[in-house]
Amino acid sequence: MIDSLNGTVLHKEPGLVVIGCGGVGYACRVSLQTAAAVGTAGADAMLYTRLTVREDEIALYGFYDRGERLCFDQLTGVSGVGPKAALAILSDFTPDRFALAVAAGDYKAFTATKGIGAKTAQRIVLELKDKVAKTAASAGISQIPVMAAGGSMEEAMSALQVLGYSGTEVARVLANFDPSLPSSELIRLSLIEFGKNL
After folding, report:
1. 96 and 47, same structural domain?
2. What does pTM read for this prediction?
3. Same domain, residue pair 117 and 162
4. Which helix (H) or strand (E) holds 24?
5. Do residues 104 and 162 share a domain?
6. Contact 194, 166 (CB under 8 A)
7. 61 contacts 52 by C-beta, under 8 angstroms
8. Beta carbons within 10 angstroms of residue 110's beta carbon
9. Counting runs of H as helices and runs of E as strands, what totals does the chain give?
10. Residue 105 in contact with residue 167, Cβ under 8 Å?
11. Are 63 and 72 in contact (CB under 8 A)?
12. One domain, residues 128 and 73
């Protein structure tokens, strides 16, 4: 297994970076986020990788950090989501934003990615919600709110979504507050935060 590549950028284009290591050029398929994070041709670069072997293809995928690679692994573990769809999602989502969307149950956020329909997006949220909550801290992904069933956080999230805020926006704001506060206070504080961003 190739865990990472540390070398020189030989070629770069959207969706592809070639890293030269020990006289060999490794073509890595990458998200747009990783392509942007990697320097121009001639610059030193390190990519964490994932090698996939299929009947008709062997492909190497590159990631700018372990968090993005973890998100890729989680996405490709969802039935119906292949490596290309996973890279498309990671082109639109940072690991933090991905974790927030899944934790908040905001499947609609994923439908904005080209090629991801509502059913696939719902499956991603359903299959990954528990996994994301358990692995976010170990991967260096920032704190995400855990919505306990029937808790004040869940009530506040539902109320704010009824007001038109997306699950991802609400989760990001609620993460800043003490989950032991009553739902009415969480809603009040959240609306103040949303008001500051107008």
Report:
1. no
2. 0.73
3. no
4. strand 24-29
5. no
6. no
7. yes
8. 26
9. 9, 5
10. yes
11. yes
12. yes
